[in-house]
Design goal:
The structure is a homodimer. In chain A, a hairpin with a 5-residue loop joins strand 2 and strand 3. A seven-stranded mixed sheet of chain A has the order 1-2-3-4-5-7-6. By secondary structure, chain A is an alpha+beta fold. At the A-B interface, strand 5, strand 6 and strand 7 of A face strand 5, strand 6 and strand 7 of B.
Chain lengths: 170, 170
Amino acid sequence: MEGWTRGMIIRLLEDRDWIATWRIIEPVFRAGETYPYSPDITENEAHGVWVEIPSATFVAIDESEDIVGTYYIKANQPGIGAHVCNCGYIVSEDARGKGVASEMCKHSQHEAVDRGFRAMQYNLVVATNQGAVRLWKKHGFEVIGTLPGAFRHQQLGYVDAYVMYKTLIT
Amino acid sequence: MEGWTRGMIIRLLEDRDWIATWRIIEPVFRAGETYPYSPDITENEAHGVWVEIPSATFVAIDESEDIVGTYYIKANQPGIGAHVCNCGYIVSEDARGKGVASEMCKHSQHEAVDRGFRAMQYNLVVATNQGAVRLWKKHGFEVIGTLPGAFRHQQLGYVDAYVMYKTLIT
């Protein structure tokens, strides 16, 4: 598993990567099971939230030079709350279970520290997304609380979501 | 105390209310002890976050027709997280301890339900702001978790902040 990701490169998204990136994130947004964006989001709006609003957006590229994942990083609050960052990660359907999300999570933590962030917060980890919850815990995040019914899952209706947090610099 | 607020009116902010509203929120933002906005925020930026971005902004007006408080309401997440709202409240320094925040909190909960929200979330209640924490608890909010060091208090340095939440419609 580590072997598979050994040849993987994570680098800043460039304009020419958007088509492949949209191909990865579109089905996830459309499904409405993990991210809060409207399942009817337009490509332009998605570009806004994934590329324009964040401080930076990255892509994970495998040995065949295919984009297999993407993540963004941004401040989670303005001003005197801006030392805590927020990230979102999406792995291509074909590349799941191969450690791509893990690599992106580790990369984002280094990136966060390099950018001067002191902690990372996930605001809305859908409780039914157990794989993600397990993975973030493995990478040092704690569930600091549960938001009852805060996510309207497109298959399951209102479900709980977790706020998860990791201190990076003490 | 209830008597004092009996003659109070809470209504939508109108353009002409901005000068008085800014006079109330400016010292709070400048102090950097309760809201994350930069203490150097400009008046234009403050108008953006308090009036333009929210779904609606209200003012509380006393019997002398002075604006003594203000709050905003907005969705806390996009799309399929947008059934949870977020509010921010500020009371004029002169009018503190007279029940204005309580009245605004109650008003905002009615307003939230009228607007179709099912829950209300405060994302960053500064732990040292004990009066606010006590007040929101009295109005049915729960501390669902603690964000360690998530707020850079201008007097105290990094302090914890709470995520607070209240289900309005079950």
